[in-house]
Amino acid sequence: MVPAFTWYAVPTGALTFANERTADYLGLPKDHPLRFGIDTGAAWDFHIPLLHHDDQAESRRVWSNCLRTTSAGEVTYRVRNAQGGYRWFVGRAEPLRASDGTLLFWIGINLDIEESVQERRRAEEQRERLRQLESDLAHVNRLSMMGVLAASLAHEVKQPIATARNNARAALNFLAKRPPDLREVEEALGCIVGDADRAGDIIDRIREHIKKEPPRRDRFDLNKAVTEVVELARTAICKHGVSLQMRLAEELFAVQGDRVQLQQVILNLILNAIEAMSSVDGPRELVISTEQRQTNGLISVRDSGPGIDPDQRERVFDAFYTTKSNGVGIGLSICRSIIDAHGGRLWIETNEPRGAKFQFTIPSAPSELRSSPQPLHPSREPHADSLRDAAHQGVSAGNTRPPHLARGPRHRHRGKTS
Questions:
Q1: Percentage of the residues of the chain whose pLDDT score is greater than 70
Q2: What CA–CA distance (Å, rounded) separates 66 from 74?
Q3: At how many degrees (to 10) do helices 222-239 and 259-277 cross?
Q4: For a disulfide at 344, which of 101, 114, 172, 339, Cβ 3.0-4.6 Å?
Q5: Cα diameter, the chain
């Protein structure tokens, strides 16, 4: 028996012979003409019904093209066996020609690739399980960070609610006047709307980080994503006496990816920086910057903490490795997995004169790169007086709200409150 599944066909495509291995697999009777190479005048697509329904159209197209062009062809399909089951094969047909080029007949061979297909399928299922595990760990990590920020977030929500209450009381006082001061009432109500919007924005951001959703590929503004994260961490920054500088590039392409996951990375790096500086007696400085690097956006988070030993820089990204007494060691590992999945890179450098500088890249949205009329080059530094540059507007105990992070009306009603 030839140790392969082989068959012959006449130039018109009709099968005339199937070797014993093929005939037994198909369950052909022992006296079937195909076992003996007898031309039964079968149609050119006689074998198509023996294939899985989903593979028939492609197989018919490839075989038809072979007959029309008298050239070799190859196709992958599932073939039904004698028991009614299917196995994967890769089939190849080669034309056999006479010395003058005349096509004599077709020689075909089918290779059983079932085990290979199943192995690939098992590997893909394993990869999918790993992706799901990474997603679950990332979700747990986000919940953990929200737990760390619980007190700060409660303060963030309470603040606009308290201000709205004061403005509501002021509105009542102005309505009680005779005659009512409607201009002041209108201004107070406008402030209340702004306060309510701000509280709603904070709650929406918290909900986005808590809820569990599959990864998304959205186009979004990287600078806006950074400022939203800083808003979440603002009270924690103030609580630890950290001076914040934000240097966000003015010429920055939009990026494409999962905004919540990337914000998770930024928030993780910010909280790590705050914790690293908690043991420092000198100035505690946190610098967050963005810039355009060719086809990537670059985000940097620098601190003035004790820094990281150069020999340990790669180890900190290993799962379950931690330098913290109460750490689990999955935060930075998850961060690197997220950045890798987005086609970026996350690494550590030394921050001069002291501290650590975490940086990561994220590819810009393809539509941004295609539509840009300018050559790609590093974006220029923001102007010193730019609203996006908070170099002189650090977040500290004495300066709790950077102007560029404000949402809604910035003024508060100045009338009397009860």
A1: 74
A2: 9
A3: 30
A4: 339
A5: 113
Separation between Cα atoms, residue 162 and residue 251, nearest integer Å:
38
Token duo for residue 134: 């990474």
Residue given tokens 């509105």 in the structure block: 171
Domains and CATH numbers, the chain: 5-112 (3.30.450.20), 130-405 (3.30.565.10)
Scanning the structure block, which residue is given the tokens 């990026």?
A: 255
CB-CB contact of 256 with 218 (8 Å): yes
Q: What was the pLDDT predicted at 12?
A: 92
Beta strands per DSSP E along 69-134 = 73-80, 86-97, 103-112
Cα–Cα distance measured from residue 346 to residue 289, given in angstroms and rounded to the nearest whole number: 15
Q: Is residue 162's pLDDT more than 60?
A: yes
Are the C-beta atoms of 59 and 77 separated by less than 8 Å? yes
Q: What pLDDT digit, counting tens, does each position of 308-318 carry? A: 888 777 777 77
Beta bridge partners of 361: 298, 345
What's the angle, vertex CA 395, arms to CA 394 and CA 401, rounded to 5?
110
Angle separating helix axes 114-148 and 331-341, nearest 10 degrees? 130
Report helix, strand or coil for 415: coil
Cβ distance 362 to 292 under 8 Å? no
